[in-house]
User: Which sequence fits this backbone?
């Protein structure tokens, strides 16, 4: 009998939340409980997800995102219990600082990972209210970082080959879009976070004949990243 590894997904969590709300509102309508007394504890869910992200238990290991989510949950819980007057929205610029720190850390890590002397073994693309189009033909392609803020990129990697069979692209997209073109014998692994945005893979499935794997990481907010085989 094959074993299955349980993993928390966004769809699973959302389904559990919907079921829980349905049960609480039903019992409230029947005058069996007062749902408000229970719902004020909802930030515990954020804290739990944050801890899971930090520990990498049942979900993707994302320490920075987990810490931010956990702190928001703690703050909101203290607010609901009357210990803190300010809501998280009152200090929303702090989240911009956290996102900025994350971008800087990822950028420095990306530079430290460069091991090849080829000029386009790694890419670093930035667009702010603008766009760019480039081709990557490195035969030892390692990946890189791509940032698009109210702008976009078109990156053609169909002539490239991944170093060691795997390359990683780290994204930060805010109100922007990125189009990636990869060889038909590459496999795509989506490992990013999308908030009112999307990572979309429209490539042909290579099956067992895959000669490379492209891993997509990072954050997309009100934007999109699309991977294709043909223009």
Assistant:
């Amino acid at each position: 009998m094959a074993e299955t590894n349980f993993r928390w997904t966004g769809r699973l969590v959302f389904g559990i939340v919907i079921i829980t709300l349905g049960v609480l509102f039903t019992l409230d309508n029947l005058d069996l409980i007062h749902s408000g007394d229970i719902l004020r504890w909802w930030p515990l869910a954020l804290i739990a997800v944050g801890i899971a992200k930090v520990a990498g238990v049942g979900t993707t290991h994302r320490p920075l995102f987990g810490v931010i989510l956990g702190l928001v949950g703690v703050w909101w819980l203290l607010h609901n219990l009357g210990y803190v007057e300010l809501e998280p929205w009152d200090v929303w610029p702090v989240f911009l600082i956290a996102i900025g720190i994350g971008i800087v850390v990822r950028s420095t890590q990306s530079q430290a990972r460069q091991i090849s002397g080829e000029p386009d073994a790694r890419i670093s693309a930035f667009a702010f209210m603008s766009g760019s189009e480039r081709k990557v033909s490195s035969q030892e392609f390692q990946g890189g970082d791509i940032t698009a803020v109210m702008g976009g990129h078109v990156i053609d990697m169909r002539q490239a080959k991944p170093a060691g069979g795997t390359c990683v692209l780290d994204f930060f997209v805010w109100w922007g879009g990125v189009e990636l073109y990869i060889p038909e014998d590459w496999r795509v692994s989506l490992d990013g976070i999308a908030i009112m945005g999307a990572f979309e893979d429209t490539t042909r499935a290579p099956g067992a004949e895959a000669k490379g794997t492209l891993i997509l990481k990072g954050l997309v907010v009100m934007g999109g990243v699309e991977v294709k085989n043909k223009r």
